[in-house]
Write a structure and sequence with these properties.
Distance between the termini: 42 Å
CATH topology of the largest domain: Rossmann fold
Strand order of the largest sheet: 2-1-3-4-5
Order of helices and strands: EHEHEHEHEHEEEEHHHEE
Number of helices: 8
Radius of gyration: 18 Å
Oligomer: single chain
Shape: globular
Number of strands: 11
Helix content: 25-40%
Amino acid sequence: MNEKILVCDDEKSIVDILEFNLKKEGFQVVTALDGAECVLRFESEKPDLILLDVMMPELNGFEVLKKVRQTSNVPVIFLTARAEEVDTVLGLELGADDYVPKPFKVRELMARVRANLRRTGVEEKKQGELSAGDLTIDEDHYEVIKRGETLDLTLRELELLKFFMTQRGQIFSREDLLEKVWGYEYFGDVRTVDVTIRRLREKIEDKPSEPEYILTKRGVGYYFNEKI
């Protein structure tokens, strides 16, 4: 069955454009014109990905995302007319997987949708466990465990950690990570990488300000500590 996309935006013209293009790409499409309806559609339709406007009546996109993240790690891409960095960072901090500023190019948005769906890992063959220090990734259940405690990671954070753990000691630029983990060869804001790594460190490190697992090579990028 083709993946189902939930489109939430209070501008009917944008919803119509997205619905047309997504269906042309072979996706199922469900729509909502305000935040409250978006939550209801999410709960009833169980979409594989959500395109979520920030500024909507009833509930804004941030409020919708909070409700979604209470029960699901479904990929969420924010659609935002706001250019301020604080809004972008807030969405990522709340657990969004990506954002696309308006006005957007349909080709770019379709690329983002496909890339995020590829990262769900539904079609991937599981390979058991990966371990480093006190961290273990249970690939069969897509969980990260530290000292017997299951950590609350988003799917994107888990995929990023898994990538680092399989490439220990190798330094990757932000652009490298966008391509290899996010799946964007041409599109993407490197701030997405910085925010996701900061959130991941807050969850896996004993002292996020003094990381032991994911280290920074100043002026170059990030790498996983091969000594662990």
